[in-house]
Write a structure and sequence with these properties.
The protein contains 5 helices and no strands. Helix 1 (13-25) crosses helix 5 (84-95) and helix 3 crosses helix 4. By secondary structure, it is mainly alpha-helical.
């Protein structure tokens, strides 16, 4: 599978997946890394969409979890672009520990 990237920086898929999986599994981690990371830091567009969804939810002063992120991506018509719920589940299962 070819991954579409939007960033000329050195791309490390596993690091991006690990960061998102950890945040989805433990939302409090978001507050530890948000100052150093934004959506444009992700080379993989799918990861930008996921991070942006998380930031949108937090910006509304709402708690987030896997289901809230799924719904936000659905509402913004980006869920299919990231590979659907299957990709979010993959991030959680592979990197959420």
């Amino acid at each position: 599978m070819t991954t579409k990237t939007n960033n000329p920086m050195i791309f490390n898929q596993v690091r991006e997946q690990a960061a998102l999986g950890a945040v989805l599994a433990n939302p409090m981690l978001y507050f530890n890394i948000v100052q150093a990371l934004n959506g444009k830091d992700f080379a993989d567009m799918r990861h930008q969409y996921i991070w942006d969804a998380i930031q949108t939810i937090v910006g509304r002063n709402e708690d987030f979890d896997y289901l809230a992120v799924t719904q936000e991506l659905r509402d913004t018509e980006k869920l299919a672009d990231i590979g659907g719920m299957i990709y979010l589940e993959f991030l959680l299962n592979e990197f959420g520990n």
